[in-house]
Amino acid sequence: MLFLYKTNDLNIVVNTICTHIKKNPLDNPLTSEIILVNSEEIKQWLNYSLSLKLGITANIKILHINSYIRKLYKCIIPKKKQLIEIKKDTILWYLLLLSKKKNIAIFLKKFKNSFEKYLFLSHIADLFKKYIKNRPDWINEWDKKKHFFKLKNQILQEKIWMFLIQHIKDTNDKLCFYPKLLRHYIRYINKKKIHILNFPNRVFLIGTVQSSIYDLLSVIKNKKFIDVYLFFFTVSNNQYTTHYQKKKKKNISNKISNFIKNCYFFNKKIKNTNKNLRFNNHLLNLWGQLEFNSIFFLKEISNQYINLYNTFSINNKNTTILNLIKSNIVLDREKNVIKKYQKKNYNKRNVKKNIYIDNSIEIHICSSIQIEVQVLHTNLLHIFNNNLDIFPHDIIIKSTNINIYLPFIKTIFNSPEKKKCIPFIIVNKKINTDNLIFNSFFKLLNLSKCNFFHNEIFFLLRLPFIYKKFLLNEQEVQWLDDWTKQSNIKWGIDQEHLKKINLPIDIHNTWEKGINRMIISYSINKKEQILWNNIFSSHDFNLDASNTLNKFLIFISFLKKWKKKLSTSKKIKNWKLIGENIIHDFYINNEKTNKYLKLILDAWKKTINTASIIKNYRINIQLLIEEILKNINSFIKKNKIFTGSVIVSDFYSFEYIPYKVTYLLGCDEESYPKIKDYDYFDLTSYYNTAMHTDTYELKKYCFLVTLINTQNFFFISYFKSQCAYKNKTSKSPFIKELEKYIQKIIKINFNYFNYINIKKEDFTIKHYHYSIICDKNKLKKCSKHTKISQKRLKKSEIYSDSNFNNKKKIYSRSVFNNNIILIENFIFFWKNPIFYFFKYYLHISISKINVNVSEFEPFSIDYLNRYKLNDEIFNFKLKNKKLDTIFNRFLFSGQLPYKYFGENCFSKQKEEIKNVINKISFLTPNSFKKNIFNLKIDNIFLKGKIKVLKEKKNHHFGILCFKPSILKLKDGMSFWIQHLIYCALGGKKPSILIGSKNSEWHLHSLNKTKSIYYLKKYVCGFVIGSKNPILLTSSGMHWLNTMFDKKLNKISSNKHIIEASKEKFMQIWNGNQFQQGEKDDVFVHKLIPSLNEKIIEKIFKNTKKWFLPILKYSYKKVNIR
């Protein structure tokens, strides 16, 4: 017999089940009560809730509905008549097997290679899996060779499926997929009288919109021999009767014996009837269209049902905006349900306090993800402090993209202060494959496509669980990294490998030639580089290097071996032990690695077992990698959910479970709802079923159900970028619709009461957060206990002009001893004030051990080797030495490109340096003198020495500096400081700075008074900037240089020039694929995490103050690169 219950609260369901179990115990005490669900979350929640009510739940089994149907199938149908279900994972392998046959090979002609064919067939296989779950009526019609589609891609899928079924029938008549198995089961129980031993007299079934209609009806069919208690979740307590339902009074499941026809008929009718139907409640019309499907479905299976609804009645205790909204939704009405209640019991003060400022629904708009999580943390602490009946397990945090929030949640929730530490559990259904063990294993599997780039090889070797396998330690790995870089190893194994990828075999950057250079260097063991057999020794080795080098050569030999093995296609049986062998060769055996490697091997075995049907079909490693990754992702991670912690999960989980507090993160337009790209091949996008679970409507319905199941507080937040040059993230349509609805409710209240002292502005659910520090003023309702420590979050004050007003105060904060500034420190500061602040005031420094050089281009020289080459050519030219030795050393050591490219590159650099040499050809070793100085500027002494030209007829400059490279901004700042000191000491000549590619800086001479004035200004800036960073950036200098009109010697007011200068600023700030942007600098990013108009103004102001004098006193427009 079937007992139908409609409900909107699982707590009521638990109470009802407990009542049935207590009042009507099973006849056989050895049999278990069975509860059927369709999700792991509901299963765990029921276990937890039933144990609280009943105490002992050992005799209660909570099963997934699919597993129960399969179990019944085996019990009811005799073995001789049973069909064998084919697993859905085997569809792809069947299709690959059939791909060589003519009937399917015709469709695959256009694909160029086997991997493209695999991707297409894999997509078709995934679609078939979807049809098996959501449209078994199609599958059964195709089994009968019935065509009912018209479009080409639809007909193609029909034909492929029919070929597949025919092949399976020819192999074994009893093989079938789940829809046929289900149909066979329904037919059998319709014809026979069933009596099952060891089964309970009743089953409790919990149905939701996500439940498969076919699975539900399959269980309902068992009502002949089992009592079925169906609890179906619907949001509203609505009773619709349609013209269609009045005509068809009899139960469809009784009237039509054919199960699939029944479902197809049902879907078709619902689609036609719910087009013009509407709810009374506005939010139900927006988000609850799937309610119609549920209502009609329940009407069809039974005319009699019991309502178990929580109507969220409004009274003294729970008069909140949240309850008001939920009550309207459940009762499907728009009127203000507390209207009459307000007449009797509420005065003006109470209305304002209890209705308008209840904080049951809040929207928080933040400027970054970090601030969004800090606001979340502070809100939760406030809830704990002010609601003693709310505990961590009563709270859920959800997001459609939860992974981007996890690092911040882990850091902020695990606060060092115990009062601020919040316990939480991250619920991931899928196993996280983004870790080093998974990444390294799949990099090893991809060795067939690996070109042996230096970074790729050392990514593997730097991993402790790999280098320990080869008896190396961390220090030795660092040595090897340095040695291989000094040997100029970039990519390519040897000459044979270069031939395969159609590159010249004479390139000197391969591992073979680089290792030969290392071996020669060790054999010679001399500091001087020697050419032997067209190979240059790279560097000197110590005596302990041989042992480390031998271990490294073994590692390289293993990589070569596996590259060769994995490069060929193999039969499936030959792939069976490959995974185990790779793990044995490369991974150390310990608990941490074994945990993940076991998952990899399980996925490997599953892939091999499902692919065993294609015994003679050869597959390549790329296909195998894709399938192994799919199988790893298919493993469901079992999470212990109810452990007294806040739950952090994906948005589309836990929606039916009631929580006291729900917090939705990242509710922007792109994420809520997150819509997948349209799939042209997916037939369900053309023909949706009544209860199809992959629709836009379902995502809206999930939001509605989440709102209904929130008991006390419903929080929404999203971050909105404050950058003036970025597109601002807009809020989700869900938020817009909810805001409008709340305003509508408030409007009803105002119309009724017509209070003068209550305005719309008094009620707000929006809160804006643009500061990292969350204090009382910036976050509503923060208490002393919830205030985040300002010492840990406080940022340094950025330099402003107001700091110049009190000189005594500035000098008293001096970071130097005895009021002495050394010229080296002074110049170093003005080269990069931000870097100086972090290094000398905060004592933070980042050593760049690994310099990123080009590994991908064999026909050009990277910037580091170009600098070394220029420097050596420059020194040789100054000493009039021949350059042949330099060319040979750079060529055979792999620092120059291949053959003619290397020759052209060398001659080009030689010409560049020649131009610099020609400009300084008049200089001799005795042309310079050192000026030692000790300038007093106010109460500060600037001390040091500078190089100046001696007074001669052919010396037209005071300071002459030169570099064998292109001049940069930091060179110009250094040059300007030296020139000011030269003029302050009485120098009267101009100065010049010479670089390659005709880059030059010319400066006019300044009189002594003017130069000392500027030095005072820069000394004062040094003192301030040592403790509070000055925003003098490269992007700002490019902006000012572009806008500066040298002819008028002032900043241009031309609109086009101003716009061009701003574009230049953003270009330098953001960078491009060839050049790193200034925003990516570690120290700049720490100081300016996001760019906004105020920061840009400060940058422009500082640039004018410190860089404008250089532009004014230069001969011509400065050429900045």
TrEMBL record:
Q: Has UniProt tagged this entry with the keyword Nuclease?
A: yes
Name the residues that span the membrane: none
Q: Name one GO cellular component term.
A: exodeoxyribonuclease V complex
Q: What class of enzyme is it?
A: hydrolase
GO annotations under biological process? DNA recombination; DNA repair
Q: Name one GO molecular function term.
A: ATP binding
Listed A to Z, the keywords are: ATP-binding, DNA damage, DNA repair, DNA-binding, Exonuclease, Helicase, Hydrolase, Nuclease, Nucleotide-binding
The superkingdom of the source organism is Bacteria
Do you know which Pfam families this protein is assigned to? Exonuc_V_gamma, RecC_C
Q: Where is the RecC C-terminal domain?
A: 823-1042
Its EC number is 3.1.11.5
The protein depicted here goes by the name RecBCD enzyme subunit RecC
Organism expressing this protein natively:
Buchnera aphidicola
